[in-house]
Amino acid sequence: HIVESGGGLVQPGGSLRLSCAVSGVSLDEYAIGWFRQAPGKEREGVSCISKSGGVTDYTNSVKGRFTITRDIAKNTVYLQMNSLKPEDTASYYCAVTRGWCSIATIELYDSWGHGTQVTVTS
Questions:
Q1: Contact, 2 vs 111, CB < 8 A?
Q2: Cα–Cα dist 93/23, whole Å
Q3: Can you point out the beta strands (E) in the chain?
Q4: How far is residue 52's CA from residue 94's CA, in Å, rounded to a whole number?
C-alpha cells in the first residue's frame, strides 16, 4: 500500500516536500521511484533511491533542485523539491520495485500510489 502526500499549489521558486508512505513492505527490500505526469504528456521518472539507500538518481531537469531521502523507521520516502518551476507542474507518483533504482525503466516498478498533484504557478 503506497500513499503519496504533500502536493499543493506553490509559486515559482517555492518549495514542497512530497512523502511516500509505504506499508506492507520494507524499504530495505525495495527501491523507490518518484515519477510525474503532466496533462497530455507521458509519465517520466523524476528520482529514485535504492534498497540500500546508497544510490540515488535524478532526471536532469531536477538535479540540484530536488532531493530524495528516506526514513526507514517510518517506512517513508521523501522528495524535497526546491526552486520549483511551472514546468514541474504534474501529478507525482511513488512506486516500488524489487529491482534496482532506475528512473528510465518504468516497467521495473510493481506497485504504484494514486499520486499527489503539484501545481507551480504565479
A1: yes
A2: 16
A3: 2-5, 8-10, 16-22, 31-37, 44-49, 56-58, 66-71, 76-81, 90-97, 111-112, 116-120
A4: 17
Q: What is the CA radius of gyration of the chain?
A: 13
Q: Please report the pLDDT score of residue 78 as a whole number.
A: 98
Per-residue pLDDT of 77-88, as tens digits, reads 999 999 999 999
Q: Cα-flanking dihedrals φ and ψ of residue 106, to 5°? A: -65, -25
Is residue 25 within 8 Å of residue 13, measured between CB atoms?
no
Which tens digits make up the pLDDT trace of 50-79? 999 999 999 999 999 999 999 999 999 999
Amino acid at 21: A
- What would the grid cell of residue 118 be? 503539484
Strand 90-97 to 76-81 pairing:
unpaired
Q: Where is pLDDT greater, at 28 or 88? A: 88
- Burial tier of 81 (Cβ tally within 10 Å: 0-12, 13-18, 19+): buried
Among 7, 26, 11, 3, which residue's Cα sits nearest to residue 92?
7
